[in-house]
Automatic annotation (TrEMBL):
Pfam families: Peripla_BP_4. It comes from Micromonospora sicca. Residues 42-300 form the Periplasmic binding protein domain. InterPro entries: Peripla_BP_I, SBP_2_dom. PANTHER family: D-ALLOSE-BINDING PERIPLASMIC PROTEIN-RELATED, GALACTOFURANOSE-BINDING PROTEIN YTFQ. Residues 1-22 form the signal peptide. It is found in: Cell envelope. The keyword Transmembrane does not apply. This is Substrate-binding domain-containing protein. The lineage of its organism: Bacteria, Bacillati, Actinomycetota, Actinomycetes, Micromonosporales. The keyword Signal applies.
Length: 329
């Protein structure tokens, strides 16, 4: 989430981090292989169905499950830690063959994963974080690639704008958002490799009002800033507003890029109020968890993009005025 939950600009609910190592690169004690397709039941505990991001994630998960002829059980955590723990454990008690969970509180996953291990039920995490538990796999957006795409686009557009300065701003999410942090880390490295200087880098804590102030102060300090990358769209749009309030253009004057492809950002791009954003694919993430579930249930070796941390990455997409219509509505 995307920030993730950064995607939703929810501060303080992202993961503290992943365990540095795994018990195994295979699903431990998965259900017996060779089961008839209709005999497999997937339980999905979702962060909160009131949010569009998780509605799309649920849809992608459910459709992938149904395409396999499997059964699907949904539990809505409703952004509540107790509901997450009790509801996910209830799915395990109902005899699901695999548990997919997008956790509201990753640090509270311990008893859920422990119970799943006891029952030999694989656990696949979808976004947010694993809380350092021995889950079987976690699916997250390819945040680092998104940061690189943002930097490459910014370099291209700064040149198109005819700007001579090489000064840019990087606005990060809250420090606890370890996955989202990869966005700015990759952006910073890529933009520096292209000869640019990050003159201001501060955390906006995923809050629009904080990002607005950061950008306002950055412009006061360095009026010749030519680009800004924000870790999520609420902060990206807020930075664009600060740019406009300073009498500058957030597209042709200062290249402004967000992350998530939230509706407000998509609208802003269409109206010329934001240069670009990076789109996550929650439906694709959901479908990917089901593919991992299939590997686990059949007792096969899970395939990872980062085997050490048991991470699987979902592709992200640069959204500009040229393709924004595909993301509208």
């Amino acid at each position: 989430m995307r920030t993730t939950v950064s995607t939703l600009a929810l501060a303080g609910v992202l993961a503290l981090g992943l365990s540095a190592c795994s018990d195994s690169t295979t699903a431990e004690g998965g259900k017996p292989s060779g089961k008839a397709s209709g005999d497999v039941t997937v339980g999905f505990s979702v962060y909160d169905m009131q949010y569009e991001f998780f509605q799309k994630m649920e849809k992608g998960t459910r459709e992938a499950v149904e395409a396999k002829g499997w059964k699907f059980k949904l539990h809505d955590e409703k952004s509540d830690e107790n509901e997450m723990v009790t509801g996910a454990q209830a799915l395990l008690d109902q005899g699901v063959d695999v548990l997919i969970i997008s956790p509201f509180k990753p640090d509270a996953l311990g008893p859920i994963v422990a119970k799943a291990k006891q029952k030999k039920i694989p656990v696949i995490i979808d976004d947010i974080g694993g809380g350092g538990t021995p889950y079987d796999a976690i699916v997250i957006s390819d945040n680092a690639d998104g940061g690189k795409q943002a930097a490459d686009y910014m370099v291209q557009q700064v040149a198109a704008n005819g700007a001579k300065s090489k000064k840019v701003v990087s606005i990060t999410c809250e420090p606890s958002a370890v996955y989202a942090a990869r966005r700015n880390q990759a952006f910073d490295q890529q933009i520096k490799d292209k000869g640019f200087q990050v003159v201001t880098e501060l955390s906006g804590n995923s809050k629009a009002e904080e990002a607005y102030k950061i950008m306002k102060d950055a412009l006061a300090k360095d009026p010749d800033v030519v680009g800004v990358f924000a870790c999520n769209d609420p902060m990206g749009v807020a930075a664009a507003n600060a740019i406009k309030d300073a009498g500058k253009d957030p597209v042709k004057g200062i290249v402004t890029v967000g992350f998530n492809a939230d509706p407000e950002a998509v609208t802003a791009i269409g109206k010329g109020g934001l240069s670009a954003t990076i789109a996550q694919d929650p439906a694709g993430m959901g479908a990917k968890t089901v593919e991992l579930a299939a590997q686990a249930v059949n007792g096969g070796k899970l395939t990872y993009d980062d085997e050490t941390n048991r991470e699987v990455f979902q592709k992200v997409t640069l959204v500009t005025k040229d393709n924004v219509a595909q993301f509208a509505g």
